[in-house]
Write the structure tokens for this entry.
Amino acid sequence: MVIINHNTERTASVSEQLRALGFGTGRPVVIAGPCSVESEGQILAAAAAVKAAGATALRGGAFKPRTSPRSFQGLGADGLRLLAQAGAATGLPVVTEVMDTAQIDLVAAHADVLQIGSRNMQNFALLKEVGRAGKPVMLKRGLAATIAEWLSAAEYITASGNFQVILCERGIRTFETYTRNTLDLSSAILARQLSGLPVIVDPSHAAGRGDLIAPLSRAALAAGLDGLMIEVHPDPAQALSDNEQQLTPTAFASMMADLGLAPETEEQQMARLDAAIRALQAQRDRLRGQA
Amino acid sequence: MVIINHNTERTASVSEQLRALGFGTGRPVVIAGPCSVESEGQILAAAAAVKAAGATALRGGAFKPRTSPRSFQGLGADGLRLLAQAGAATGLPVVTEVMDTAQIDLVAAHADVLQIGSRNMQNFALLKEVGRAGKPVMLKRGLAATIAEWLSAAEYITASGNFQVILCERGIRTFETYTRNTLDLSSAILARQLSGLPVIVDPSHAAGRGDLIAPLSRAALAAGLDGLMIEVHPDPAQALSDNEQQLTPTAFASMMADLGLAPETEEQQMARLDAAIRALQAQRDRLRGQA
Amino acid sequence: MVIINHNTERTASVSEQLRALGFGTGRPVVIAGPCSVESEGQILAAAAAVKAAGATALRGGAFKPRTSPRSFQGLGADGLRLLAQAGAATGLPVVTEVMDTAQIDLVAAHADVLQIGSRNMQNFALLKEVGRAGKPVMLKRGLAATIAEWLSAAEYITASGNFQVILCERGIRTFETYTRNTLDLSSAILARQLSGLPVIVDPSHAAGRGDLIAPLSRAALAAGLDGLMIEVHPDPAQALSDNEQQLTPTAFASMMADLGLAPETEEQQMARLDAAIRALQAQRDRLRGQA
Amino acid sequence: MVIINHNTERTASVSEQLRALGFGTGRPVVIAGPCSVESEGQILAAAAAVKAAGATALRGGAFKPRTSPRSFQGLGADGLRLLAQAGAATGLPVVTEVMDTAQIDLVAAHADVLQIGSRNMQNFALLKEVGRAGKPVMLKRGLAATIAEWLSAAEYITASGNFQVILCERGIRTFETYTRNTLDLSSAILARQLSGLPVIVDPSHAAGRGDLIAPLSRAALAAGLDGLMIEVHPDPAQALSDNEQQLTPTAFASMMADLGLAPETEEQQMARLDAAIRALQAQRDRLRGQA
């Protein structure tokens, strides 16, 4: 088993650099947004919606890895520009995928986090170069990658001296066909223990079904993982990719509230605390009455 | 996709029969105990320990499905007798595996729940007969069974008119070798939605490692599943089977407390409620101070 | 890795007992017949057809392991009687599945080889008893069983003193959905090396598609395995089970001829030898002409 | 299911261009050589050995995709130069891997066939560009890629107008740990049927064990596939990568002879034909004697 060994200073420094994204604050990081950037209106609407619901970063694909060459391949450089604009408009850092060494500079000029997709988890030429951009890198687990391979891939990035690596578990390929992939929480937990790197979970790709996103998100946070990446689209039925697994803004907001991650005004916070105190006092009174 | 169709009356009746075990009460069912019944002292110690920690049922294998014929095969009828005795001593219902049609009457005479193990999930001769004993049946998912096959296996049991079926997800076989199996929470959630049957999770067999049991248990309950089955042994290092994944009584008690499932005296409850109220009031005061 | 250790005497004795079925003769054993025995006419027609095409044993299921309780479950005892009758009529030994300890005596009274199906590969109660009938046992590999588990399951049978075990590889479950299962020739080859037991291949269940049966059969024999089990039905489209993967008698006869396994009259043999000699002499003449 | 549709003219033209490599001649293509180019002496020795044994092309990695950044990464441009030199010395066309868009021109300047490795099967940026070099491309199947994904990846290459694509099955990842991967002959056969492209098999990576290479090679050719790729190293124990699965020159020569693919002098051919004719005549005489 290969393990990334961080000495204490290095880990501390990693934490500091990733803290701007919300890692290490005790509150889950939530990266949300559409599968693909499709238009200015779409990404601005998505960004506003996820910000309002409590997301801490905006995602959106400009270069899209698609199984078939006949599928929508993303808006490319235009998509990057629109994404960066939506991030600026909402104050959210942006996360987007880089697919080739030739794209690194362009993507790094627009994004706050460079994503390496599952299909490129062992694109070693890309891994060797991506860290040099000096930005945090989110490394998605390959769909049939072992924990050891995943951490070794991360070492290709850290070998360049960039330790700002975030791991993302997004489901593995199994025999089960009722879900798109099988979310592997055990490996996410172990990868976090073994590497000391932050690990987030992408339930959208893991499940491929909107109805599993909320329970899997609750499970991932209960297991102690560092955050979530969720696909949210203003109009999932019209999406140019992944339209079965993207949440509506309403469904996302509802899930965030259920997870206790929705933003609150001071009055809302006060009202929530008052209600919780009243409920506990009622329990206490019942208990005293029984005694 | 094959789905068990329950009409409302039937589901209600199922719930009533399984309620004695704690299903449908809103509080998770926790079945705990050793992998195998090994001796009177061992099973009595295990039963007392899991009862004290808040378990709601006692498990222990008397007929053991072991990969090799040279491994410990269980105490058989003696094991059943010792298990029933430990259940009676602690007031816990007992759950144990039946491996063959010829064992059904014997096992049913001692157990409150008959377990069908993963390796027998498609032992159709056994499935056809096991329901006739009139006791609840816990059907573990086969290690490479699809959701559809799992629910179809349950239908073999319900076809006998016995609808008291509990499903148990215990991990599927994948390429990953760092864990014994891969816990598949998505399928557990979907099996529950599709069948209306209670679904519990066995993180001990899923992970095969003691250190993953607590986080996976938290995740399973956060995902809304109905309970847990956990292997607990008074002295795991000396266990005759599965000694890497059984928890000590201390570790189990600690996990149950962490899950909020440890039993409390009235004073403990009162103290906990008082502490919680004080903490919320402190938050409230800080908030008012900021305002 | 668990390995069956045969000393020389034992292996020799195994070979002697299995030789009546054709193992160890240097010529592949071919077990053919329908998935299920459906009627007297169907099994007699199938038996006659596979005999004429060169099969060395007749298969046919009487007790059928079916995923759903609503599928055809086999004719049971009547099916056994019809199968034995068809075997007697054609002089072919018969192979059929036993699913439960309670069926062993009945099945052994009618069959020459007792088959343990994939779903029961780890039905240890059945494995412990099946060998006592004193007949050869064909143990199919479980669809997610490792080589070690498969050989350990065989040891449950040999532990009863019956070493007449035939292993059958029938495909494993993988992520690929275009075929029903994935034929794993490597494991079949290794299981043969490690155990010294004969190993045959079932391409019908492995592929689940008629068009792959011939090339996979050629591959299995080229890899040095001991035989084949092929599903053949007089009218596959009307079969009560597995109707996509059963060959017609015509297709089976064509495949057997292609494999060089079709029976020949002395004139046919002589004509074939003459043709082969002429072809080689022509090659020889061309070569001399070039020189 | 996505399928590459070739019209007749296009397929014919493909065949013509690939015929120089031996595809479509009725005789299997055998690409052999070391995992990695390690030195001038090593690659020249390997090239001479595989040529003498009957190989039709030389392989050798210069850019190596290695799981860990601490493993040998290949000689890069120097390796390409040495490989081309060994190809020229023996008259064998050379096959080598390209890992990144930035390497395409360099690799194409030295190689006759550009290989896309398993880990890059869905490196879509690379697939889009690699065809433009105008050389045949060998596309290895990803270790968890479905047939549909494999053929769609091939379409990324053919979309550039380059139809000289060779598919290579190299084993898929399954639960079995006794072999490195599981060779999936069914999918190789189907991919060939569906695409019309030549398909070869790499038993070295599939099995990861020297002892399986010969039987799997025989199986692949018996199944009608177009060729083999075999790792051969002058001294496998000292190899810098994959040392357990590389054959010695002696073992490779022996396997080629066994497959009927070893080169023969005219005298050897004549002697072989004479021996075969004598054997058939002896059979004929025995048969006449019986009659």
